[in-house]
Specification:
The longest helix has 26 residues. About 50% of the residues lie in helices and about 10% in strands. Helix 1 packs across helix 7 and helix 4 packs parallel to helix 7. It has about 210 residues and is of the alpha+beta class.
Length: about 210
């Protein structure tokens, strides 16, 4: 049975998984869940995924929530085209960058948080959270980056960084102070796995927003 990914076109968390699936050449069925209309809160969805979030994946008879858990599962069960380095120290660097993005930036600017703020404050809040977080990520990349976040091969860190930069562009974050981040972004965005995972290429993206 083909894996199923519950996704939303604007979700940077779901985009992490889309990139990994594309990079590893894993065919899957996308099932869009509209976060803006509250579809993720429906009884039919929460009966499967009590956290009521995306991504959520059904694969190999398993139901897995949380993007990092899904990424690790894909890496452990489908090690061809690896997204983690062999070297333990480099693996730790990858996971540290993932944590800086997935734990320290994205949760503070996601839709659920923004909806608690008055409309005029939302973009300002998101822009500050992302910019402040990228300062730390840039310093991490100063020590680890080659063509990509850790060395010259795509890793799970890149799967997490590029969707977050999509949010940065959406909220007009100035990326000029982050040369390492910009280099990684340019290299990653040249690859089909990243291009195909972009929010504008998703089946639930409104036609007027598609590239």
């Amino acid at each position: 049975m083909e894996p199923v990914l519950y996704t939303y076109y604007r979700s940077s968390s779901a985009a992490r998984v889309r990139i990994a699936l594309n990079y590893k050449g894993i065919s899957y069925e996308p099932r869009p869940v509209n976060l803006s209309t509250g579809e993720h809160l429906s009884a039919s969805y929460t009966s499967q995924n009590p956290q009521a979030l995306v991504p959520f994946m059904v694969i190999d008879g398993c139901e897995i929530s949380q993007s990092v858990a899904i990424l690790e599962y894909l890496e452990e069960t489908r090690p061809d085209k690896p997204l983690l380095p062999k070297d333990p120290a480099q693996r730790a660097q990858v996971r540290a960058i993932m944590g800086a993005i997935c734990c320290e930036i994205q949760p503070l600017q996601n839709l659920r948080v923004l909806k608690t703020l008055p409309e005029p404050q939302r973009a300002v809040h998101a822009r500050k959270v992302i910019a402040d977080g990228l300062v730390a990520v840039e310093k991490m990349l100063e020590k680890s980056a080659g063509a990509f976040c850790v060395g010259d091969c795509v890793t799970l860190a890149d799967c997490c960084l590029i969707p977050q930069l999509g949010n940065a562009h959406r909220f007009d974050v100035d990326l000029e102070p982050f040369p390492h981040i910009r280099k990684v972004e340019a290299n990653a965005n040249a690859l089909p796995a990243f291009k195909q995972a972009h929010w504008s290429q998703q089946p639930d993206c409104p036609p007027d927003l598609k590239n």
